[in-house]
């Protein structure tokens, strides 16, 4: 019996230790891994969850006190996980839905780990003191992360290549969005602990913790603002308003010490919001990065428009598969199929809708979304439950319910414009676990099962649990980690030369794990670089080409609805000069994403290389007609029209954009130079310098055009005019003026 007690305490310590270690995940950025900001944190999250799951299972099988109690929240979460598992299994690409990839490390495996976290945390953190210590530790870690962010702000520390102290903070997250939502949770957690400490203490003893929690709120809010993440900033404001309004409305005792501060928060936020709206265009606002970015929120903002376009595309995908959706990690397929040509100047490979409602609609259909929303509904019901027989008795005080409702509201609003990552998942899961524990304890809910294994069998149960943990951890993580390391080695310079890189990338792909698609795409890019090197070993080139072509075909077979592998295959064939095969692959990519202009551009280049001028023109025309405000497509179509002698079409295309200066494109100049239409170049660049009088290169191009027209006087006048910009420009222009006078200027 004594041995079992020691073992019980040891395993309990391990489980609690793993829970507390989860809070340190933000600091993990192993540079030896592919996507270090993502993979390090996620592998640690999964391994720690597996460790604590094994220990908890051993404890729960023998000791009832470690078992979860019946909870509508846990039931809702479990149903959601099952629905998504079914959606993934029946989805468009089950392998990726289950495992995700290195860039995201999401998928069902992460969702399942999150559910385990909620179950274990709500069972093992089973006293108010434990939870308070846990949250206080979390706040301490958030201050350390904030400290790193401030060092980043002043340029002392950075993990991001090309970082500028004027950029958005990302600290150890690699993405400002991830840091922002991390701080969002901790602002509300600090407010919750402050409110609890205030209610539990007497007047005159509140200064110390008030200064501490107040400082945490101020510091974490500052870092959140410096991420310049607009959706999260609005989520913070909205969540704070929700919490404050609820306190004012539902605090029954009007002498409640929280009512007046809540009212002041409401008034302050409204005044600040209104004041900011009034001065958002002021010069001082434009000089403050996060304020300038916040002030650009509008329906016409390019980022906002891209979000709306994504939501519309997602809805088309939902209509095609309304019940269970496409499975996780498959929005990229919807994005390809229903691509909106108005997205021409945005990211070409969206894999998230950037809206939690549509993301779960696409991943799990209507059932998946309802399952997700049911977690929030159950949590809110638990927060605001009041006993009918004792009206004033509740699991949570009004202030606690209000603050926790505020953080759930802020998090949900944040996710209407971005998407989750492992730390936001984790913090959401921990908040849910806290609500589950509080509600279950207060209600005296029964444990999920009553039967227990004998205490004397605990040692054997623990051994079995350890074996299960190691087995699960190895199956889930070992191969994925190995593949990740092989991939890093493969894309790094090797003493053995490219041949060694090829061996390593083959080894990475052979693992058939999380990063197989990414490894195949890296192989294609490596092959294209090797092929482009002149006078290089032809045998190595052939090996890269043949291996890459076969592997990306394998990826096509694995995910037949994905346009990306087909496009990669087409680009690879083009790089190798195999234009016929390239045409076939690009046509397939176009069939999968018929409205994506970037694919049509590649098809046009391929047609030109094959001597199919009519095909080239048709592809460029189609790309232009998909969305005529697309200046890129207009320029390419116009340049091709000039080169093929169709000046009428070119004139029609360029006429609307000459006055705006947008027609002054090097491709247009090159096309007219080939046909020696210097008069056309002059007309276009004359309009351009009128719109952009400080662009020195524009004047030089205009002068060259006049010289090509044999109008040396105007050419000289233009260079004399540009010389007035600065002495440096005058020094540049002087030799050209002399060459024009002598007639020796060479036009290229």
UniProtKB/TrEMBL annotation:
InterPro entries: O-antigen_ligase-rel_domated (IPR007016), TPR-like_helical_dom_sf (IPR011990), WaaL-like (IPR051533)
Keywords tagged on the record: Membrane, Transmembrane, Transmembrane helix
CC annotations in GO: membrane
Gene3D superfamilies in alphabetical order: Tetratricopeptide repeat domain (1.25.40.10)
Membrane topology: Multi-pass membrane protein
Record field: transmembrane: 12-37, 43-63, 72-95, 107-125, 137-157, 177-195, 207-227, 233-251, 258-279, 360-384, 393-412, 418-437, 458-476
Xref: SUPFAM superfamilies: TPR-like (SSF48452)
Presence of the UniProt keyword Transmembrane helix in the record: yes
Protein's UniProt keywords contain Membrane: yes
All residue ranges annotated as the O-antigen ligase-related domain in the record: 216-373
Subcellular location: Membrane
PANTHER family reported for this sequence: LIPOPOLYSACCHARIDE BIOSYNTHESIS PROTEIN PA4999-RELATED (PTHR37422:SF13), TEICHURONIC ACID BIOSYNTHESIS PROTEIN TUAE (PTHR37422)
Name the record gives this protein: O-antigen ligase-related domain-containing protein
Species per Swiss-Prot/TrEMBL record: Candidatus Kaiserbacteria bacterium RIFCSPHIGHO2_02_FULL_55_20
């Amino acid at each position: 019996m004594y041995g079992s007690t020691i073992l019980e305490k040891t395993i309990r310590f391990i489980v609690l230790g793993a829970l507390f270690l989860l809070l340190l995940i933000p600091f993990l950025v192993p540079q030896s891994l592919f996507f270090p900001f993502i993979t390090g944190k996620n592998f640690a999250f999964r391994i720690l969850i597996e460790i604590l799951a094994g220990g908890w299972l051993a404890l729960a099988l023998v000791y009832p006190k470690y078992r979860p109690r019946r909870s509508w929240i846990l039931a809702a979460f479990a149903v959601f996980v099952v629905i998504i598992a079914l959606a993934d299994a029946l989805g468009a690409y089950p392998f990726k839905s289950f495992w995700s990839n290195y860039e995201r490390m999401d998928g069902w495996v992460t969702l399942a780990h999150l559910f385990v976290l909620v179950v274990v945390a709500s069972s093992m953190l089973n006293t108010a003191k434990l939870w308070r210590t846990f949250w206080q530790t979390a706040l301490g870690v958030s201050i350390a992360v904030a400290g790193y962010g401030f060092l980043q702000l002043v340029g002392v520390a950075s993990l991001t290549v090309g970082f500028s102290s004027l950029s958005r903070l990302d600290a150890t997250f690699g993405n400002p969005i991830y840091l922002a939502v991390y701080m969002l949770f901790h602002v509300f957690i600090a407010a919750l602990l402050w409110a609890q400490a205030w209610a539990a203490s007497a007047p005159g003893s509140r200064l110390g913790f008030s200064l501490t929690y107040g400082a945490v709120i101020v510091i974490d809010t500052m870092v959140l603002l410096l991420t310049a993440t607009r959706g999260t900033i609005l989520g913070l404001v909205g969540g704070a308003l929700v919490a404050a309004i609820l306190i004012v409305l539902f605090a029954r005792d009007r002498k409640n010490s929280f009512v007046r501060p809540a009212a002041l928060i409401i008034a302050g936020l409204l005044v600040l919001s209104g004041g900011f709206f009034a001065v958002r265009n002021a010069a001082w606002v434009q000089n403050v990065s996060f304020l300038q970015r916040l002030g650009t929120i509008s329906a016409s903002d390019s980022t906002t428009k891209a979000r709306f376009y994504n939501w519309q595309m997602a809805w088309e995908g939902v209509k095609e598969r309304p019940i269970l959706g496409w499975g996780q990690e498959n929005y990229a397929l919807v994005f390809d199929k229903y691509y909106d040509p108005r997205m021409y100047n945005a990211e070409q490979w969206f894999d998230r809708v950037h809206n939690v409602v549509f993301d779960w609609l696409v991943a799990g259909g209507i059932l998946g979304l309802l399952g997700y929303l049911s977690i929030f509904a159950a949590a809110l019901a638990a927060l605001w439950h009041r006993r009918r027989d004792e009206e004033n008795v509740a699991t949570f005080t009004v202030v606690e319910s209000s603050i926790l409702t505020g953080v759930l509201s802020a998090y949900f609003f944040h996710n209407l414009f971005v998407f989750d990552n492992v730390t936001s998942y984790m913090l959401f899961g921990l908040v849910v676990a806290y609500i589950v524990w509080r509600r279950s304890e207060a209600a005296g809910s029964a444990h999920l099962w009553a039967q227990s294994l004998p205490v004397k069998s605990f040692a054997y149960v623990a051994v079995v649990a350890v074996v299960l943990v190691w087995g699960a951890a190895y199956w889930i993580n070992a191969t994925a980690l190995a593949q990740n390391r092989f991939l890093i080695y493969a894309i790094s310079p090797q003493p053995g030369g490219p041949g060694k890189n090829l061996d390593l990338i083959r080894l990475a792909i052979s693992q058939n794990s999380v990063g197989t698609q990414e490894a195949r795409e890296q192989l294609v890019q490596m092959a294209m670089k090797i092929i482009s090197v002149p006078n290089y070993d032809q045998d190595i080139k052939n090996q890269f080409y043949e291996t890459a072509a076969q592997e990306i075909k394998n990826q096509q077979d694995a995910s037949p609805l994905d346009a990306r592998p087909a496009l990669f295959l087409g680009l690879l064939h083009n790089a190798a000069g195999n234009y016929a095969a390239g045409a076939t692959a690009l046509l397939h990519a176009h069939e999968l994403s018929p409205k994506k202009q970037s694919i049509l551009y590649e098809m046009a280049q391929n047609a030109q290389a094959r001597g199919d001028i009519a095909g080239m023109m048709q592809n460029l025309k189609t790309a232009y007609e998909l969305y005529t405000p697309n200046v890129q497509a207009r320029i390419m179509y116009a340049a091709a029209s000039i080169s093929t002698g169709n000046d009428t079409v070119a004139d029609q295309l360029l006429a609307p954009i000459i006055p705006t200066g947008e027609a002054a494109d090097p491709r247009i100049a090159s096309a007219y130079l080939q046909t020696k239409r210097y008069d056309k170049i002059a007309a276009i660049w004359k309009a351009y310098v009128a719109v952009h009088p400080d662009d020195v290169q524009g004047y030089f191009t205009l002068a060259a055009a006049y010289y090509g027209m044999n109008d040396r006087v105007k050419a000289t006048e233009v260079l004399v005019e540009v010389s007035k910009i600065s002495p440096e420009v005058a020094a540049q222009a002087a030799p050209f003026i002399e060459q024009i006078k002598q007639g020796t200027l060479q036009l290229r």
